């Protein structure tokens, strides 16, 4: 009897290639890590690619993906994943009713089912997200809200509700797959895979789809260099006077221009960046709160706790317990 966990990834014409390949790479690298640790082949993943007729499909970026078999020929699936696409609403999916029907049946047979990006719309159409919390790519949130029985989480990178996983798509499909690896084989293996993939951060489910750093890059060209400098110097005081000096502006003019361009005061911006760094350290390092406070530029553990609760709605220790399962 084959004890491997079969990961079945469904794709179709027009699917987003990274929604398919990204999670597949995570499970493949997990196999490598498990093998390196001496686990038997039966303790690993079996990865298969499914398409409606078991044929080659043209997906995004001009790639052609070849399926292992037709979805109706697959048996004993442990984890079923359905990718999304980046098409406009008018041409959203080229997904047949037979595939939707098969997905609906499989949802009651598999250990878990997940979708990447606007693949959530497929699950919603067949009723699998009714009464569940779910997310999707920010571009398609309004389309998911059309389904009144779905509790839409607009911000999270991925969401797990029971045995159903949804994610924001593209790179977030990697985060979803890493969460599944962690669920199966522990956080150590998942972090090893993240390291092999040269990820800056293994994001957990409560991470937002857009980081403060990325949003700041989109919002202002004037302060790009300053924002990068802030990220690299969080241990410094970073008061308005020091930031204004770095930007070669008067403190008053700097505060006014920064708030106008970035939509937030300099002090609040720095706090958000520091809290994001705290989250990263809590998730990846076994450091004391005192050490984390020092690294992130907080004057004390109490100042860290207040800022963390203000931004995350919980204390650092509660956050660490949450991500540790």
How would you sum up this structure, described in words?
This protein has about 325 residues and is of the alpha/beta class. It has helices at about 15-35, 95-105, 120-125, 140-145, 170-185, 185-195, 210-220, 225-230, 240-245, 250-260, 265-285, 290-295, 300-310, 315-325, and strands at about 5-10, 45-50, 55-60, 65, 70, 80, 110-115, 135, 150, 160, 165. The strands form three sheets. The protein has a seven-stranded mixed beta sheet with strand order 5-2-1-6-7-11-10. A two-stranded antiparallel sheet has the order 3-4. A two-stranded parallel sheet has the order 8-9. Strand 8 (about 135), helix 4 and strand 9 form a beta-alpha-beta unit. It starts with a strand and ends with a helix. The model has no long low-confidence stretch (mean pLDDT about 85). Keywords: Transcription, Transcription regulation. GO terms for molecular function: DNA-binding transcription factor activity; sequence-specific DNA binding. This is Helix-turn-helix domain-containing protein.
């Amino acid at each position: 009897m084959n004890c491997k966990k079969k990961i079945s990834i469904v794709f179709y014409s027009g699917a987003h290639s990274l929604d398919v390949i990204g999670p597949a790479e995570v499970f493949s690298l997990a196999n490598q890590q498990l093998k390196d640790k001496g686990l038997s082949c039966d303790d690993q993943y079996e990865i298969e690619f499914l398409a409606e007729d078991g044929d080659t499909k043209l997906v995004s970026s001009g790639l052609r993906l070849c399926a292992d078999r037709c979805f109706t020929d697959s048996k004993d699936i442990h984890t079923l994943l359905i990718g999304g696409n980046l098409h406009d609403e008018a041409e959203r999916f080229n997904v047949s009713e037979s595939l939707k029907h098969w997905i609906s049946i499989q949802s009651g047979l598999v250990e878990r089912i997940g979708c990447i990006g606007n693949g959530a719309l497929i699950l919603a159409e067949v009723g699998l997200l009714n009464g569940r919390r779910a997310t999707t790519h920010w571009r398609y949130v309004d389309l998911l809200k059309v389904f009144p029985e779905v509790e839409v989480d607009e911000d999270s990178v991925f969401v797990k509700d029971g045995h159903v996983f949804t994610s924001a798509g593209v790179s977030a499909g990697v985060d979803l797959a890493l969460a599944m690896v962690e669920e199966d084989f522990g956080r150590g293996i998942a972090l090893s895979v993240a390291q092999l993939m040269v990820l800056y951060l293994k994001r957990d489910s409560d991470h937002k789809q857009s980081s403060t750093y990325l949003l700041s890059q989109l919002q202002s060209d004037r302060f790009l260099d300053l924002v990068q400098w802030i990220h690299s110097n969080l241990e410094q005081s970073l008061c308005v006077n020091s930031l204004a000096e770095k930007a070669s502006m008067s403190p008053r003019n700097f505060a006014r221009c920064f708030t106008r361009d970035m939509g937030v005061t300099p002090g609040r911006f720095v706090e958000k960046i520091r809290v994001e760094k705290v989250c990263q350290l809590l998730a990846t390092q076994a450091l004391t709160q005192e050490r984390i406070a020092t690294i992130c530029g907080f004057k004390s553990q109490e100042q860290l706790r207040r800022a963390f609760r203000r931004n995350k709605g919980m204390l650092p220790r509660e956050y660490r317990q949450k991500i540790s399962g």
